[in-house]
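Attaching the record inline, Q. Sequence:
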Amino acid sequence: MKKILLLLLITISFGNCKKQENTNLSSQSTKKKFVDTLQYATGFQVQKYTDYTIITLFNPFPNASKSYIYALVKRGKVIPENVKYDQLVTVPIQKIVVTSTTHIPALEDLGVLNKLIGFPNTKFISSKKARALIEQ
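Structure, as predicted:
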């Protein structure tokens, strides 16, 4: 669950990214790679390849002893065997469960509220769009 929420927050942060080609980081794949240079967000790195993206969270929580690596792989594509990761996520994500009402406006803004399939207690949801989906 925490992994999905982190990915959602990272997705929202992508609006502040600039692409910068990086040619010396091709050890994971022979396909073209870009490293996003983040203007405001910190604590993670995004490496984009043709069929997948590697997101490294450097300090995922206070006093973390390691970084976490997520591989976002396009649906129907295969990630190279030499790519190291902690969690594989097939994208686009088809379903999501959130545990805070603060995530619902982000889902609305991203146009993916219909992907929300679970919430611990729907009586706290005030979003009109979300309420309409709950009623359905």
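Helices lie at 2-13, 104-110, 128-135. Residues 5-9, 12-30 have pLDDT under 50 and may be disordered.

More tomorrow.
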